[in-house]
Every structure is written in C-alpha cells, then in structure tokens.
Amino acid sequence: MDTRTATAELGWTANPASGWEEVSGYDENLNTIRTYQVCNVFEPNQNNWLLTTFINRRGAHRIYTEMRFTVRDCSSLPNVPGSCKETFNLYYYETDSVIATKKSAFWSEAPYLKVDTIAADESFSQVDFGGRLMKVNTEVRSFGPLTRN
C-alpha cells in the first residue's frame, strides 16, 4: 500500500472522529499528498487512533512500513495543559477479514501488537510553521513473522 501518490481520500478509520482531519498538502518537492492531521493539543487526555484500510499481505511473511510525518514542538505552544504529544505508537493486528469500520473498531491497545514508539528526529515550532517550513521525518519499521493478512 503506497499512499504517496494518492489524490483521493485514503479512507482510513479515525477515532475520535472529531480529532483527525484528512487534508491535501505538499511534500518537500511540492508534490500534492494526502495526509492526516490531529491538532487538538488543548484538549486533555488525548487518545487519537488512526487505522489504515485492510492490507492483504499476499503471502509476505514480514511487513516493512515507511512513515513520513511532522510533529509540532510542544514547547512552542503557550499554555498547553500537558496534553501535547511528540511521539506516537505503531501497532498491528493480524486478521483475515476487515475488523475496523467507521462504526466499529478496537480503540485500545488490546488486541493490537505494539511495534514501537515513534519519535520525531526534528519538530517544527510556531516560527517554522508560519514560514511553512515543516520538518518531515521518515521512520522505517519492520515486523513479523506474519501468518494472516
């Protein structure tokens, strides 16, 4: 699944629905890209989830995932009540059928398997954001062996 050239909605499942927004943007080469963003840093106790569409492994025994993302530097946000996060967790779940839809999905760590906590090497501040200089991070992780889709 390669979303780098997607021009239409990606159709991922988000929770809470009011937290995530799918938007079009530009990469560092000014190519149009589809992204998800969550910017509710002023709300306490955030627990934002984003699930890809079902991925058929087609016989693969290991998954390699490349994630490209930006992170806002929490210290650049004045008066944030401690709910700003600069990391996220990557999970996976093996199944042979679709388990997540917009109306039903698992929104807690169980039954997913944690791959890693992902942190940005570079973040952007308000000054950078005003100048539209987003620092894009790329992280690659692999996991397996897989026996189901």
Structure description:
It contains one helix and eight strands. It has 149 residues and is mainly beta. It has a single domain, classed as Jelly Rolls. The strands form four sheets. A two-stranded antiparallel ribbon has the order 1-4. Strands 2-3 form a two-stranded antiparallel ribbon. It is globular, with a radius of gyration of 16 Å. Residues 127-132 have low confidence and may be disordered.
Task: Give the spatial strand order of the biggest sheet.
Answer: 1-4
Number of strands: 8
Proper CATH architecture: Sandwich
| Number of distinct helices | 1
Number of domains: 1
- The helix content is under 10%
Give the H and E element order.
EEEEEEEHE
Task: Calculate Rg over CA atoms.
Answer: 16 Å
Content-based structural category: mainly beta
Question: pLDDT below 50 for ≥5 consecutive residues: which ranges?
Answer: 127-132
Q: CATH first level: which class?
A: Mainly Beta
Distance between the termini: 13 Å
Sheet having the most strands:
2 strands, antiparallel
CATH topology term: Jelly Rolls
CATH H level, superfamily name: Galactose-binding domain-like
Mean pLDDT value: 80
Specify the overall morphology. Answer: globular
In terms of DSSP E residues, the strand content is 25-35%
GO molecular function: ATP binding
Main location: membrane
InterPro entries: Ephrin_rcpt_lig-bd_dom, Ephrin_rcpt_TKs, Galactose-bd-like_sf
Subcellular location: Membrane
